[in-house]
Structure formats: C-alpha cells, structure tokens
Design a protein that fits this description.
Blueprint (H helix, E strand, L loop, with lengths): L7 E7 L3 H12 L4 E4 L17 H7 L3 H5 L4 E3 L1 E5 L7 E4 L9 E3 L2 H14 L3 E3 L2 E8 L7 E11 L4 H4 L3 E15 L6 H7 L3 E2 L5 E10 L7 H4 L30 E4 L5 E7 L5 E8 H13 L9 H9 L4 H7 L29 E3 L5 E4 L3 E2 L4 E2 L2 E3 L14 H21 L4 H31 L11 H7 L4 H5 L10 H11 L8 H14 L16 H7 L19 H22 L7 H4 L5 E4 L6 E4 L2
Parallel strand pairs: 1-2, 1-10, 2-7, 4-13, 10-20
Antiparallel strand pairs: 3-6, 4-5, 8-9, 9-10, 11-18, 12-15, 12-16, 12-17, 13-14, 14-15, 19-20, 21-22
Family: Belongs to the flavin-dependent halogenase family.
InterPro entries: FAD-bd, FAD/NAD-bd_sf, Flavin-dep_Halogenase_NPB
GO molecular function, one term: FAD binding
Length: 619
Amino acid sequence: MMAVPPQYVEVLIIGGGPAGSYAASVLSREGLDVAVLESCKFPRYHIGESLIPSVRPYLRFIGAEEKVAEYGFMRKPGSAIKFNQFKREGYTDFVALGADNNAWNVTRSEFDQLLLNHAQDCGAKVFEETKATSITFDEKDKERPIAVSWARTVTNDSNASKTGAQSKTVTGSITFTHLIDASGRAGLLSTKYLKNRHFNASLKNIAIWGYWHARECSRNDECEASGDTPTSHKYEDSTTCFGMYGKGTSRQGAPWFEALTDESGWAWFIPLHNGKTSVGIVMNQARYNAQTQSRSSSSETPQNESSLVSRYLSNLPLAPGLMRLLCGKDASSSGNSGLGHDMKIPEGEEHLHMRAVLEQGSVRSASDFSYSAPSYAGKGYRIAGDAGAFIDPFFSSGIHLAFTGALSAAASICASRRGDCTESEAAIWHTKRVAVSYTRFQVVVLSAYKQMRAQTADVLSDVDEDNFDKAFTFLRPVIQGASDMGSRLSESELQRSLDFCINLFNPTSPDEHKAVEEELASLDRHKGLIDVAAPLVDPKTFEDVLKVRPAHCDSKRSFDTRADSGDLVAENKSRMVLDKINARRLVHPEYAINNLEAEELQGYAVRLEQGRLGLVQVA
C-alpha cells in the first residue's frame, strides 16, 4: 500500500467496496491511472452476503471469476422463497442453465478484500484508512468537481496499539480528470453536495440480523438420537447439527427466504463458508416501531438482554421455516418439499429445540436503506453502487447493481475520453443505465412485498415513469392490452405490472419445469415458451397451449392443488411454470453482461471490448 496519495490522477475513486474496486479494475485494465481512497482498513465488516449468477460474467470481464470460484465461498445453486405458510416454497435453480451458473454466499469482509486486492493487481493505487473529507468544484464551472481533500492517520510503528507509539493525521488534496463516487450509503456527492437522494416510502423497512453457528454436541446429545452424526463443528461440517436448506441434495447451500406470518416483511437464512449462518428479519418500519413501543410499555424486554437482541429473537418465530432450520429440521413443516423428514416444533417452544447459537455481539440493524436519485452523473463525475441507490436486501441485487453501475461509470468515462461522445452525453447515458437496471429490480421487489403483505400500497411516487418505460418496454403492451399506449403510467397499470412480476416467485420445482419442457417437446410446439431468454409472451398464448382457463391476475391468487381433477392440477402447475418463466424474462437481460452491448439507451450501447471500452452509437 502506498502511504500518501499522489497530487494528480486521471480517475479518482472514493470507496473501495465492490463498486469502487470493480470500477478501478476495469479502468486500470484500460490503461488509465487510477487511485482509490478507502476510509477503512480492509478487511472490514459489511452486510449483503447473497450473490446472484449475474456476477459471474462481470467478474470474468475483469479476470476475477476464477479467484472468487476457487476461494472457497459457499456455493449457491439457487434460492428458495416461501410466501405462503400453507404451500411449499418456490425454488429457482440457477444451475439448470449450466453447471457453472451457480452464485455464492460470501463473507463480505473477505469478498470485498479479494476485489480490492484484485484492483491493485490490475494496477490501481489503493489507499486504505484514507478518508475523502470534501470535494472542491471548479470556480468557473460550479458543476464540475476538480479536487478531493483527504485525511489519513499514520504511525511509524506497526504495533502502535501495543507500544503506545504516537500517531498523526496527514491531510492532502488530489486532483483528477474524472471522479467516481462509490462511497457506499454515505454517498458523499448525493448527500452532501447534490442533495438529491429520494427515499422510497413504499419500502421504508428496518433490517435486523445476526450470525449463528452450531452449538457443540456430543455422542450422548440429542443429535445422535435424531440420526445426526456428532461433530466438532469445523467449518466444512458445521451444519451437521445445524439446519441447512436442502442439506444432502443438489439444493445444499441455497439461501432460504420466507415471508413473516404477520405479513410485515420477510426473513433470510444464508449459510456461509466460515461455519456461520446469516439470519435476518426485514420488517415494515412503522410496524416495528409500534411493536417496540408496545413491548417497552409492557416491560417485556429482559433486563439481561439488549433491547435490540431481544426484539430480534422475539421476531424470529414469525418465520416458522427459519426456526425449523435453527432447530436442525427441514424448513418445510408439511414435509412436502421433498427434502427429508421433519418433526413439527410446538409453537412457543422453539428455543427448547435450538441447535444453533447466536454469536455474541453480532446483532445489527439498519433502516432508511431504500433510496435512489434523479441523476447519477455530471461533468467529470459518476456515482456508482450504494452511493447512488439501493433497493432492498430482497432478491440480492446489491452487488449486481454495484457492478453494473461501476462498469457503466467506467465505460462512460472511457467513451468521453476516447471521443465516442461528449462528456455530457456520456454522463446522461450513465444515469439512464443505472436507473433502468435499478427500476427492473425495484418493480420485482415491490411485487414481492405486495404478495408478502397481502395488500396494495401506492408505489407510483417511487417509480420513475421514463425508467419504467425503458426497463419494461415489452410489458406495457401486454398489461395495457388494447388501450392507448400513449397514456402516462398510472397506479392501476403499475399494480397490474406488479401482479405480472409476482409470477417470478411461483412455488414451482425444477422437476415441474423439466416436466413441462418434456411435454412441450413431445408436442413439438411452443418450445420457445420454456426459454427464459426468449421474448416476452402474451399470457393469453398459454390458454391455447395448456387448454386451461387463465387464473385471475391477482397477487392473492391461489392454484388449488387439492382439486378433484388430476388434469386440472397438472394444468395449473404447468401454467405456474410458464408464468414464472415469462416473468423471469423481464429481469433476464440484467443477468448477462452482454446486455450492455445489446440494450440501446439514449442512442448508445456499450462497446464491451477490453482496450477499447466505451460507447458506440446505435442507429
């Protein structure tokens, strides 16, 4: 690590998290002089452990995929989501599209350091424990940043904490041609200078989470009685007495997501490679505040526990499947998941059956984390990752959007420098690229919350119409039908869009997808209906294919699997499969980095070629 930043660099990046590290790697590989100012000393803690498969092509583009794949992170073959306690979970199988299409559950301190180290390997200058304190703008052009002031505490003794050696604060300033703000939620440019951050009222939630590990057991322990093999709980086998969704099957390692029974939010259960499991609750902020006030007035909080830990533990039973996992059982109470034997745990007695231990001091919380902005770029600067926008932990889109924004920032900077377009055009393109990707995931997340909360909330004020139009170009004609296409986006149309997107979480299994594929193949027709990369299909087409009356398009719809007719059950399951594939097509473009080359925005697309990265005009 270099002790002091240089006085000038071509591109300065504030923040060494995933967005900053990724942008630094890309631009360094393009031959630019890049410096990263990171306020922390890595490794440092960060939440957000679950990745989606789209990160693989992004990592491949900077030459880091193999490093991540070989590191030893928990393999994530898919994800399980349970919205209804009376039905089985839905499972999305990532590896169905290819054996190497898995993602990972990562310990972010290690994953982020790997990325930052890779940026250095690519040639970027990295300065840890160096905080960007302020930004100076051009006196003649008030919108263009030209310098960043920084501060760093240094000491001449590496064992200063033990020896009591004196330390001092060193300050300085660095100028640049371009600036990328990847400073995370702090969002230096957005919050301190542009002051344009918009918080999503429809996603005003609070997240509380902690880390669990298997308790020690012996051969005289109940785990032997239940058929488990006692273990000393080394990292590689720490789940022997600790639940894991799909343990011993092709689904092992997949996170478990579950709607809370009081319809206030959802829970996550994410196994990690270091023997720990990340377990969290996301609740409506107003509901949580009312709950906290009620418990405070009734003096329910034990005196020997912190109020945060107490509230965390008291809310976990709202996710019965998650509690069963903490008790070493199958997540499914009905046993219809096909993943093994389950014993129902009496309500209120979950703590008596716990095989997991909450790591002391690991419980944390966060709120006001869903936000966006009308602009993510300007003259000489770009904003990427959480510094500009974040949706919600649901759907695990954070790292994907960080990489997308970082590559967009890098491509637009290269385009401006190489004369592909003007700096103004490059900045506008970056804003649109970030906004469109954000909107795709935002609408999917909103649809999930509509299902979980079993109610309709006004969301139009949180969704930008222009970005919606571009993100869902092919959906509006399907939703609007024969109505005029020139009308503005309405709340009613947006709600119908959410109802369409919720099909993405249909409770289907890989076996059912395979059965539908085989059925269509035997009929030698409509094979494209099961191709997630195919164009969006009008759902009316399914009526002819399946000869089944379409289910009412409503987020509370229910396919009755107890129907007397076996044919009707099969048709309904097939319909759910086709509807799920159709909904996945809305976000599928985000899963391939080449989409940046194919999707035209503001008249430009990315020239995704190392050494010539930039933008190309699309006729």
